Amino acid sequence: MLKKFALAATTVLILSACGQSDGGKSATAASGVAASVAAAASQSNSTAATVSGSLIERINNKGTITVGTEGTYAPFTYHDKDGKLTGYDVEVTRAVAAKLGVTVEFKETQWDAMLAGLKAGRFDMVANQVALTSPERQATFDKSEPYSWSGPAIMARTDETRVNTVADIKGLKAAQTLSSNYGETAKKAQAEIVPVDGMAQALTLVQQKRADVTLNDTLSFLDYLQKNENSGLKIVWTADANEKQGAGLIVNKGNQDALAKINVAMMELREDGTLKKLGEQFFGKDVSAQ
């Protein structure tokens, strides 16, 4: 997924300022404004650099690391019935922190401000199903070893036998949101599109036999099946490994030493079965393998 494919959330990473010339202002004043803007940018960059340089020190000194997350994005990061922050991404982060011997402090923030907050130094890393797929994000941040992999999938009723590949949905009714990439995939496969507002409505139409299939993210489907054991639905196709995207812990550029230690911890969690256990807890399946 990763993060909210259908919603296409966009994080603003670079802030720009534009002004309008005032004939009553002198060139000197304009120059002063430009200098102030440059100074502010320099100070912001300096802050980010300070955070980047201190992360490895906090890890080495068994200190506290801060992690940005939503807290409202189940099953990845949310509050349980007792109000405790939990979720797959949250528990993976806690397991990594335990391997590193550090204390983790979560800072909940809205998705739209999360990566900007990381860049500004408000936290050391982000755990929120981020895949770093855009060149802009890749130029600004680094990602750990992935702890989950996801890609497109097709859901149908349990008695469906016609669908084994995307090509098999040709001529079938696919319940899809018109603006999503999954809807576009269904159109290209020449399915008959049944418009819906979201995944919940799409699954209901498939259950009611008003649609044959629906396409969406693998992890979203697994989460649904985990919570609805008697849904009468099943996943009939998932994307090949090379079509999947991996989510990892995100840090600012310049944290190579810290990232190396985080990666070692993540690989140990994969080898000792912790990631598999957490995947089964939240999705009913190991989602850490591509």
Task: Record the SSE blueprint.
Layout: H1 27-60, E1 64-69, E2 78-79, E3 85-86, H2 88-100, E4 103-108, H3 111-119, E5 125-130, H4 135-140, E6 141-143, E7 148-150, E8 152-157, E9 173-176, H5 181-188, E10 192-195, H6 199-207, E11 213-217, H7 218-227, E12 233-238, E13 245-252, H8 256-271, H9 274-283
Helix pairs in contact: 2-8, 2-9
Question: What are the salient characteristics of this protein?
Answer:
290 residues; D-Maltodextrin-Binding Protein, domain 2; 2 domains; 6-stranded mixed beta sheet; 3-stranded antiparallel beta sheet; 13 strands; Probable amino-acid ABC transporter-binding protein HI_1080; signal; SBP_3_CS; Solute-binding_3/MltF_N
Explain this structure to me?
The structure is a single chain. The protein is elongated. The two termini are 13 Å apart. Helix 2 crosses helix 8 and helix 2 runs antiparallel to helix 9 (274-283). The chain has 2 domains: 55-150 and 246-283, Periplasmic binding protein-like II (D-Maltodextrin-Binding Protein, domain 2, 3-Layer(aba) Sandwich); 152-238, Periplasmic binding protein-like II (D-Maltodextrin-Binding Protein, domain 2), CATH 3.40.190. The protein has 9 helices and 13 strands. The strands form 4 sheets. Strands 1, 4, 5, 6, 7 and 13 form a 6-stranded mixed β-sheet that branches. The longest helix has 34 residues, at 27-60. 40% of the residues lie in helices and 21% in strands. Strand 9, helix 5 and strand 10 (192-195) form a beta-alpha-beta unit. The chain has helices at 27-60, 88-100, 111-119, 135-140, 181-188, 199-207, 218-227, 256-271, 274-283; strands at residues 64-69, 78-79, 85-86, 103-108, 125-130, 141-143, 148-150, 152-157, 173-176, 192-195, 213-217, 233-238, 245-252. The chain is an alpha/beta fold.
